[in-house]
Amino acid sequence: MKNINSLYEFITPNGFLPMGYEITDIPIIFSEINDTFAGINNGVLRTINKPKFRVSNNTPDVFDLLSEYFEIHRKLVHQISDDNLRQDHNLFVITSTNDETIVEYVSRVNLDNIFTKKSFSLFKQYDSVKILLIDNKEGCIEYTDDFFGNIHKFTHRHSIKSNKIIFITNTSNIKRIYENYLAKYDLPSFMVCESINFCVEGEPGKNIVKYEHTTNDYEVEKIVERETEYSLDKAPLTHLRDKHFLCLNRNSGRLHRPKLILNLIQYNLFNKGLVSLFKSDAFDNFCEEPENTEYKLQIQQKYPFIIDYEDADAVADMHNYFTNTDMWNRAYFSIVNETGVSKGSIFITEKTIRPMIYFHPLIVYGNPHTLSELRKLGFETFPEFFDESYDTIEDENERLSAIVANVEKVCSLSLEELHVLYHSVYPKLVHNKNLLIKFATDGHIKDKFSNAIDL
Amino acid sequence: MKDIFLVSDYISPYSPLENCLNVGYFQSYIESDFDRTQGIIQKLQDKYYDPIAVWHGQGSIEYAMTGQVSTYDVFSKKHQTDGIYLYVVSPFGGASCTFGLHNSLHMHRSFFFFIPERTKYLIKNLENFYLFINYSNEGTLNNEFFEVIYKDACEFDIPFEKIVFCISDYNIQKSFDDWYDVYSQRPDNQDKKLTKIKLLYHVWSLRDKAREFKKILSNERTRFNSFSNPCTVVSKQEVTDKIVRQKKFLMLNRRMRPHRLYSVLMFSHLNIINDVFVSYDLNNMQMFDLEERMYKNHHLGEQIPFSTIKLEYDKLKLTKPISILDFENLEEVWGFNFEDKRIYLQSYIHITSETNFFETGGYFSEKTWKPMGHLQPFIFMGPANGLKEIRKFGFKTFSPFINESYDEETDDKLRFKMIIDEIERLSKLSLEEIHSWYHSIFEDILVYNQELFLQYENDVLMKEFFTKNLFEVLNDNT
To answer: What is the ipTM of this complex?
Structure first.
């Protein structure tokens, strides 16, 4: 196995300077570093030309993501040897930040301006030196022509081989999106695109294994981390639950969420389940529009709806997968209100995964074809509960209607009937959870990553 | 002996960057891709018309370093040893900018303003981490530097005892103590808990000059800046007692500093100038012109009235304003890569007219070592105690044939008189007498000195000197 080196151009008093800055911003960046005692991830401007953003400590470093699977060495360009260049894999890694996706980044930046001449010369000269773009924060994004176009122009301008720029993203269907772009402009391939859904294939299983290890296989009932309590019990199958569904919504700023909730209210389904929704300025402003009076009356004047935690940020900041078990054991299925519902890209997040961790069948209001992607990954879905043809409906409003109709149908069952139905799919629930663990332990991500960078 | 590590805040794809670099300079670095071979410094000077405030080269001390590490590695404890970590700031020629005394891009801010927060933390909190001001390429001190160090160390809460000031001035401790006694007693400083910074005397020129001579003797071409002259050095084998040399003395003067001009005029006045191979250019005085006020300041009027000296000056300017020995254009002569053995083979005693004489700095430039390399005895025309310091390096001097009591005289005017008197006395000896003495000390002193001098090209030897002195300074808690 070859060594993998993550290459950096500069080391600063606060650490290696993450790649992605534009060279012309160096004076500002170094000035900022001079004045900043904290680590580089706590506040170094990556750009000043566009709206300022900071490389936040919430953004997992590539090492957090991959160091469990590979031995990765940080190397300065200054220190790299001929042997490194000939024998190792050498990657200039650019990751997304909390404030900017890789797609936004590449659309904004001229890639010619992000390297010193020396680094670029190494990149051009040695097959072992590649650029790795990792979008591990957001996958639910619009892949503009600018994104692919800028990379294509860059590779074309410098005659760069198609295996030298690798894009790894949470977007499940990135390969199809890329193929569509190539077909649209009749282009040969100029980069490598790979989907690694860190929210599905890496983190959840890893956290479950860690939890089981910590609690000695569930013998400890609860864990308290940063003053937040969570637990991960096995699903009790005997007692009758008091609600039909659970629908968790942290950020009401994603307006499709209150839209689904308004539907639940209007169809008298709201009280059949446990529904959370947190306040947001975006939703408050939305409610002030004259045509949104219904939202104001039915939701804004009554929310926030809180089920488990009052401080949603604390949970999200921690690991985003575990919560208290109680609410899950009070309902029979989950309505997942995903991060995005638009067509085009497919981004499956922890919102879809959490019901799997807590043994819930699920219906997903997300991007079209989400269920199809889950099945491709090996997960079971639940036609026993729902007419899953909603998954193929491209129009988000029509899809929402189909979802609400499904929920209405299942909620028309008595809790006793639902209890029996739930039992009938329990082996599928166990399978899904085990698959999460399998992903974390069988080298799934390692294989995908290896293929992408041609290890 | 503990290891010594050079600490750099920033490392670029090409090399470590200068510590305390004003980020305003970075545009030039960007244009040159951070590659110093692309003329960054020249671009900066062309752009700002300023000397560069900090310098990347640590040539004068780099041989003493075990290695180079980044501030981050020390901070994050990836590099953790019981060695000494030196966070080096090198003024190198632009010291007034470095100390914020110059209206440059720095806007009167000293280098302290450009120390990153994490580095300040290390200086304050890591016992073996020091701020090291590497002024060792220079030997002339400006007391304003100390003012800035104390003012800004207070402002940034940097402990005085964690600051090492390194200079090529063997009188630095006395100069500093004199300044400190006054400074610490000033009413505005009496409430401050002042302690002394650490002072390190370090000679940069010995190794570099020895290295140059070694190369020349090995027939290697040497270079300095853009110059690459064919140079020659006197070897032991070519010295013969069969030939009596033309001149008793040799004195090289490029820039006519006061003591050099006074000497030339005294030689003229004493009618001994014909005994001296002397170079000078009165048409291009640079830095100094003969003025009565200055002459009085140097208190030489008690020996010879200014009117007499002025008369000599006018006479010389009229009859022989330029005296060329080895290289014609004195403007283009540098301390390195301009060695011509012929003038040494035609004279006996070197009059070493060092950079400083009336100035306080006990500075050995490359001039001090030239006579050793060329197998000549010498009279040291520099600050007091120069010979004493030279002897500390193991070299032998020339008492009793030369009365060296001048070296202990700290009164500049008296020392100057004693040197001129001694030259006058020696000038009264015949060439044969000096020839005979020269050959009597040839093996025991001159060859010994040359061989020892050439040994100093070895980094290991210089490292031992530097390291020993540094640890003495760091361990001195007085």
So the answer is: 0.82
